[in-house]
Design brief:
With 320 residues, this protein is α/β, with parallel strands linked by helices. The protein folds into 2 domains: 161 residues, P-loop containing nucleotide triphosphate hydrolases (Rossmann fold, 3-Layer(aba) Sandwich); 108 residues. The chain has 15 helices and 5 strands. Helix 10 packs across helix 12 and helix 12 runs parallel beside helix 14. It comes from Novosphingobium sediminis.
């Protein structure tokens, strides 16, 4: 996906590069799905490039080191190596940080600079953070760190104080639509509208939603919020739309989509409805935290999600 809508971030980055003493540590901050990781790779490629020297792609560049959670086991490693989707570990380990640090004692391979991308710094183990701090305090010559973070408040103050913060903001609807059309030209109509609404300004989130083909789910959830569901019919449609055995990833995406439906409804609601939206959103946030840990029965989970959405509607019972 081409980086659309982040001109401000590029201007700040390139102005820093043009200066005489560019800061060695950068935090790329903003909600997940905005394109921060893609920016980091493109920015790192610009940083390490040398005039007249052929440059490999960022993924295989010897002077661009990418740290992200590893596959969760040998089977998932095999899937990764075959180019398939795979499950990752929850954290970036201290061993991964130390492994990169051992490589930083040598000179860059193709030029005078190298970049270390950590995606995401939110996922660093405690020991990994402490190990990283040593490199941020005394960075090797020509080494620059790009820390992608979705929740900057989770980073230690000692890490934040050693980095320049580059903030990323949600895209405007027109920019988001343009990014989606370029990344997924087959999207159109209700599917495109649902992806734009679900993405809430984040291209990655919108594209992930579209790839899961959840457009019909979005429409059902929107009806639940607007109409309620006194006879459970819409909750039945929601369960049918997801199928009998939805994956955990698909269920998590549905919970997130339900939260986005509520956020979208907030702007056009009266004060009493907003209170119900806040209560339902808080309950969905709890479900989102529990779902990756507990083995919920999908049918019951969908019933709970549908009930929370329906509780927002201005029914006779709510009005009483």
């Amino acid at each position: 996906m081409r980086l659309i809508g982040h001109d401000e971030a590029w201007n700040v980055w390139r102005a820093a590069r043009a200066g005489q003493r560019m800061h060695h540590g950068w935090i790329l901050a903003g909600r997940e799905g905005l394109g921060k990781a893609s920016f980091a790779r493109a920015a790192a490629a610009e940083l390490v490039a040398e005039p007249g020297v052929p440059q490999p792609a960022p993924e295989v560049h010897p002077d661009i080191h990418l740290l992200e959670p590893l596959p969760s086991n040998d089977d998932e490693t095999k899937k990764r190596d075959e180019g398939k989707a795979y499950t990752r570990k929850r954290n970036i380990s201290v061993d991964q940080i130390r492994g990169v640090q051992r490589r930083l004692v040598t000179r860059p391979t193709l030029g005078s600079r190298r970049a270390v991308i950590i995606d995401a710094a939110d996922d660093l183990e405690k020991g990994a953070v402490n190990a990283l701090l040593k490199s941020l305090e005394e960075p090797p010559a020509g080494t620059f760190f790009l820390l992608v973070t979705h929740q900057i408040g989770r980073l230690l103050p000692t890490v934040r104080s050693r980095c320049t913060v580059l903030r990323f903001h949600p895209l405007e609807p027109d920019d988001l639509a343009r990014a989606l059309r370029e990344a997924a030209p087959e999207l159109g109509g209700a599917a495109l509208e649902a992806a734009i609404a679900a993405g809430s300004g984040a291209p990655g989130a919108a594209l992930a939603f579209a790839e899961m083909e959840l457009g019909s789910v979005w429409q059902i959830m929107s009806r639940l919020v607007a109409e309620g569901d006194p006879d459970l019919a819409l909750r039945g449609e929601l369960s049918t739309a997801l199928g009998q055995r939805p994956s955990r990833e698909r269920l998590l995406a549905v919970i997130e989509a339900a939260r986005r439906v509520l956020v979208t409804a907030m702007a056009r609601s009266d004060d009493m409805t907003r209170l119900r939206i806040v209560e339902a959103h808080a309950a969905l946030a709890t479900l989102a935290a529990q779902a990756p840990i507990y083995n919920f029965e999908p049918a019951l989970l969908l019933l709970e999600i549908g009930g929370l959405l329906a509780s927002v509607a201005r029914t006779r019972e709510n009005a009483a």
